[in-house]
From TrEMBL:
The keyword Kinase applies. Residues 8-140 form the DAGKc domain. This is Diacylglycerol kinase family enzyme. Coiled coil: none annotated. Pfam families: DAGK_cat. The keyword DNA repair does not apply. It comes from Hydrogenophaga laconesensis. Keywords: Kinase, Transferase. PROSITE patterns: DAGK. SUPFAM superfamilies: NAD kinase/diacylglycerol kinase-like (SSF111331). It comes from the Bacteria. Transmembrane segments: none annotated. GO terms for molecular function: kinase activity.
Length: 335
């Protein structure tokens, strides 16, 4: 493992903000971040961009951070964090997070507050620490990746959010609607650890985040102590089931007991190659990673990466954490 990147406190931190520069949301984010920087006597460059510009801006900012011994900071939801993580991991620079999403599993797992001012203050006092990341084909992901039903769920969730607003209840209702009309089945040939499995499933879900799996109640029983996170990930597969069984599955998930539901198969792995059975003439499959949906060419290669992401995160001896900012279930263990 390479040494952790060294930071120069006098170098400007590179903030990548997913918001149009003239919008009211951008103005609010600028005020919050700049006020914290002024109070702490630090400097930073704030780069506002649209979703189309995000990947290029993330790469440019990561390279600038690397050359000046600074950090690049993602300000936004899961998609923004994923895009900036992709650039920071490739460059080898440190990355910080100011979360703006609904669930914020990655930030919460690593003790980062939901409040933007508190998150900005905290990253100014943090040091880079290695955290596990994974990839699906050539794309890095932080929290999860999936095939089948889960990408459908994400697309439905965005439709519901556009109509009813962004909240956890809206996300839950969208998930229920997706599950109740689940029809499409995947036939997968899975190569893993020298063995093979041929399965028929509604979805293959891969988790790289213990907090999300704990809230689902879906941690595999055959995991090594402290994992996923220490060299492995968890996989969940949902066998085809009827409508009544699907309702039971949703209830188990709502109660955080998904792992106890009939039809759910969970296991742990480090590297998996998935070869889906595709219709004649097709070579791509729809996948999801960290809330983003894309098409990827089969076979699908999912693995834990040897190279970590260096994340600005609270140190174990740090006691001044603003729990009023929404960090009431923080785990300060490094994963």
């Amino acid at each position: 493992m390479a040494d952790s990147p060294k930071l120069d406190p006098s170098a400007p931190i590179q903030f990548v903000i997913n918001a149009a520069a003239g919008s009211s949301a951008a103005h609010t984010k600028r005020e919050v971040i700049e006020s914290v920087l002024r109070a702490e006597g630090r400097c930073g460059d704030l780069h506002f961009c649209t979703p189309v510009q995000l990947a290029a801006m993330a790469r440019e900012s990561a390279q600038r951070a690397l050359s000046t011994h600074a950090a690049v900071v993602a300000v936004g939801g899961d998609g923004t964090l994923n895009t900036v993580a992709q650039a920071a991991h490739a460059a080898g620079c440190a990355m910080g997070v100011v979360p703006q999403g609904t669930f914020n599993y990655f930030a919460r797992t690593h003790g980062i507050p939901a409040d933007p001012a508190a998150a900005t203050r905290l990253l100014l006092r943090s040091e880079p620490a290695p955290v596990q990341v994974a990839c699906i084909n050539d794309r890095v992901f932080l929290v999860n990746a999936s095939l089948g039903l889960y990408p459908d769920l994400l697309e439905d969730r965005e439709t519901y959010k556009a109509r009813f607003g962004r909240s956890r209840w809206v996300a839950f209702v969208a998930a229920c609607a997706t599950l109740l009309r689940a029809q499409r089945r995947l036939r997968l040939h899975i190569e893993m650890g020298g063995g093979v499995r041929d399965v028929e499933t509604l979805t293959l879900f891969v988790g790289n985040n213990r907090l999300q799996l704990q809230q689902f109640g879906a941690q595999p029983q055959d995991t090594l102590p402290g994992t996923p996170g220490h060299g492995s990930m968890a996989a969940l597969m949902l066998r085809p089931i009827g409508t009544l069984s699907m309702i039971g599955l949703m209830l188990h998930g709502a109660m955080g007991r998904l792992g106890e539901a009939a039809g759910v198969d969970g296991f742990e792995f480090q590297h998996m190659v998935v070869r889906p059975t595709l219709a004649p003439g097709r070579s791509e499959v729809v996948v999801a990673f960290d809330g983003e949906v894309a098409r990827m060419r089969a076979p699908i290669d999912i693995r834990v990466l040897d190279k970590p992401l260096y994340l600005l995160m609270p140190q174990l001896d740090q006691s001044a954490i603003d729990t009023s900012a929404g960090v009431t279930d923080v785990q300060l263990t490094r994963t």
